[in-house]
Amino acid sequence: MGAMSRVRVIVLNSALGPLDYRPPKDAAVAPGSIVVAPLGPRQLVGVVWEAERLPAEEVEAKRLRPLLHAYDVPPIAAPLRRLVEWTADYYLAPLASVLRMTLPSSSALDGARTVIEYRATGEVPGRMTPQREQALERIAGRQGLVRELALAADVSDGVIRGLVKAGAIAAVEVSVEDPFPVPDPAYAPPDLSEAQDTAATELRAAVADGGFAPFLLDGVTGSGKTEVYFEAVAEALRQGRQCLVLLPEIALTEPFLKRFSARFGTEPVAWHSGLRQSQRRRAWRAIASGDARVVVGARSSLFLPYRDLGLIVVDEAHETSFKQEDGVQYHARDVAVMRAKLEAIPVILASATPAIESRQMAEAGVYRELKLPARYGCATLPDIAAVDLIADPPPRGRWLAPSLVAAIDETLERDEQALLFLNRRGYAPLTLCRACGHRFQCPNCTAWMVEHRLTARLACHHCGHVMPPPRACPECNEENSLVPCGPGVERIADEVAALFPDARTAIVTSDTIWSPAKAAEFVGRMEAGDIDIVIGTQLVTKGYHFPNLTLVGVVDADLGLSGGDLRAAERSFQQISQVSGRAGRGEKLGRVFVQTHEPKAPVIAALVSGDAEGFYAAETEARRDAAMPPFGRLAGIIVSSEDLNAATETARLIGRTAPSVDQMAVFGPAPAPLAMLRGRHRQRLLVHAARSLDVQDVIRDWLGKLDWPRTVRVAVDVDPYSFL
Ligand code: ADP
Ligand code: ZN
Fold first, then answer.
1. Is the CB of 578 under 6 A from ligand 1?
2. pLDDT tens, 492-538?
3. CB burial class (10 A; 0-12, 13-18, 19+) of residue 113?
4. Is 376 a pocket residue for ligand 1 (Cβ < 6 Å)?
């Protein structure tokens, strides 16, 4: 058989392996071509692959069906095809699931230049209903497909279509071919400090030279890491190549866009889950054609088919949100390094608190470490003090110690801003009945229902289950007997309001900042001085730069340590360092108060004394002694089913058949700490192996031989970050 008469295709269906087809009648295809393949009566999008790299079922030539169509878009290039293979292999995921991340929806693949979207005309419909009213109110200035507007307004598609008929919403034609403006590397380059210049020079050279070059850009908060990696971006732009900047959180995109455009004269192309379909389509096509020169995005932007990528930056590289926890469970930081290797380009991991994994790579000489030891300009690092909650306790039923309250008072006196950090959304993490002790638990999960007063609901933070707060206890029927236990940010906001009735406060969590537009609004209010005290979760710990923010209070520094997983201490250290880094970024000195019951705990002691190196050294030693990552390897196996018995039996079967392999141990099965999640019972096993062992191969072989009921899901989490 000649190459032209048979092509191998990965179709976007993770239950299917590679399939063979005949080429389409009207077009030539090569590896990487994006095609439409017939499957029974269905049509699936797929990508042509090198036949020699993937085995497929043998099908006689005369039984092969022809591909229906090849899209007129650039093929998926070889380095990205290798990345797809590597990711599937390393994370034990189906090729099709990884491949899907490189492609947009099929509508973006066809050649149409325009899309019809809808927006409100301002016209009032002749017949108004509550649903129509709600729809018009909620979509306000929005524009999008009927489906998108319906989702935004929380009404059915029919309501939107009705409003179109009534003339209150009209169609607009949107071009998806409008070119993106090109950032200008010479627009507003900064005067770099000496340390910044040294780092920037090295990065520019690496970009100009090309070739794989991983960097760890390790600089304290406010040292100008962003300014420095912008110089690498500028160099890539001068070379006419594309850049990708990965950010951990969509909420960070908006301030980043502003900052980028101050440096380069125009915004970069953003890629995140909040894009409308037409924006997504325009961005994807520009990325594939090479017209999108700088892309800033969440982790999913890592798999896009850049035509000529010259640089990847992973900002806040220590963030655990780079780890994807559903579907393909990959770590975007690690995949970014692999993509850079396959594309033969530099990659910069930027962080003020690099992960032990990354530091280790630097120490081993694999990553080149660039240090920025001081804050830029006259800003200095804030003073961190521990507040001993036993010696200096808050009054009963309150959470802020007198010394922190006094510091807030002084800050407000000086017209400066304060930030209180507590990594707990809502009002109270637990609600119980004073009469009978009943606790409100999620019916679908092993988790308490969290009270949210702002929306008057109890909510499960794992599955999203919500209920109105009942007036009486469902167990004992006692009325008004329910009491909130412990604080969330809303409760701290109440306390602040009682203490400082004139202060203007803002709560910053994923409940209040759920879109880039909301983030922009918050940043605007902070910059304008319209907020005195911010009360926020981890969402405020990173990225933001508010020169007038001079006080940070960490409400409960012990919270992160209670989980007790492998990285608990490291994560606490990072989180508190990061939130501390929000204080005193301008000319004014910053102060940080860390409330704790254990001021002597190593994490707290290291933060107070500023001895990051000592802390990291001790943590690294402990990991080395226990052969934990990065000195050893872990993989979680999570077995889940709605049927408790099936989950338990399958987990036992997996445990029983664990191969005995040198330098590998299997722990469990045992019920997961989150024993039930979204109505599924969960069991976990943990595989611990030496670094030299190809643990994926062992697991693939082991699980590949087993059968379990269709109702059971078995997920393998390679290099896990969650142990719940
Ligand atoms: P990091 O990313 O390390 O936290 P940033 O890049 O955000 O630090 O820099 C902190 C602040 O200092 C920002 O407002 C930035 O614009 C400013 N800055 C840093 N370096 C320079 C420079 N060389 N010239 C002018 N401003 C700078
Ligand atoms: Zn739940």
1. no
2. 999 999 999 999 999 999 888 877 778 888 989 999 999 999 999 98
3. exposed
4. yes
